[in-house]
Each structure stands twice: as structure tokens, then as C-alpha cells.
Amino acid sequence: MQSGLRRAAGRHLFPVMLIFGILAGSLPSDARVRIATGADLHAACSALAEHALDPGRPMPKEARYCKQYLAGYFETLRHRHEAHDLNGIHGPVSRDPYACLNIDGPRSFGQLAAQIVRTGDWNPALLEGEPQALAHKAFSDRPPCS
Asked: In whole angstroms, what is the distance from residue 145 CA to residue 136 CA?
């Protein structure tokens, strides 16, 4: 009687172990870095800028990566500014962490993405480097800060 129970338990255990094996095998590729180079940021922001022209369709995953990167970039600037007692990370001392950014007025993520794409098109050498260099060039060219 006990051997029949073991066989039944083994039959049910195999599919569960198979599912866990498949899921465990797919985790490393999902956990990889989404934006590692300027070219990755340029491609992701191209997708976001294109999506902004037709927002009725579902947002592609590359567009979400750009949106997440931009949100993280600006949040990092704010935190760095506050952590340094408002001593002007990218320029003169100011209470505004975004005072030196080359952005006049409110912008949507699609508009910010288009600015990244234009900067990458005009400065192809930045596509080979770090994504921060491309973002910095796109948003930090306001005198006297640059």
C-alpha cells in the first residue's frame, strides 16, 4: 500500500519540480541589466519617444526601461543634492536640485526621451560609453553649469 502512495506522490512531484526548474532557468536572463550602455539608453528612449507619438497602443518594454531610467536619474540628482547640503552638485549653490538642467518648464517622459535620442544622434561617441554620460550631456548643458 505504501509503495502505491509513493508512486502517486512521485508522479505529482515531477511536474512541480519541472516547473521550478524552468522558472529557475529563466531568472538569470530576467535579472540582467536593462540599460548598460549609452546605446541601450538611446534604443530604449527611441522606443519611448515613438510611443509618445501614439500613446493609445500598449507601451513596449523598452519604453518602460527608458522611463524607469529617467525617473531614477532625476531622483538620484535630487538625493545627491540633498545629501551634499544643497552645495550645488552640478553648478552654483542653489535650493533647486534641477537648476542646472537644460529643461525649461515641465516635460513629459516622451519629451525627455526625445532629448536623449537627439543628444545620442548628435554625439555618437556617447553611445559607446556609460548611459549616465549620455543623460548628463542631454540634460546638463546650461551655462554656467556646464
From this structure: 12
pLDDT digits (tens, 9 = 90+) for 38-92: 999 999 999 999 999 998 999 999 999 999 999 998 888 777 767 665 555 555 5
Candidates 56, 84, 83, 73; CA nearest to 140 is 73
Say if residues 134 and 116 touch (Cβ distance below 8 Å).
yes
- Do residues 141 and 134 lie in contact, with contact meaning Cβ atoms separated by under 8 Å? no
Residue 72, phi then psi, degrees to nearest 5: -65, -40
Looking at the whole model, is its pTM more than 0.90?
A: no
What type of residue is 128? Answer: E
Q: Where are the beta strands (DSSP E) in the chain?
A: none
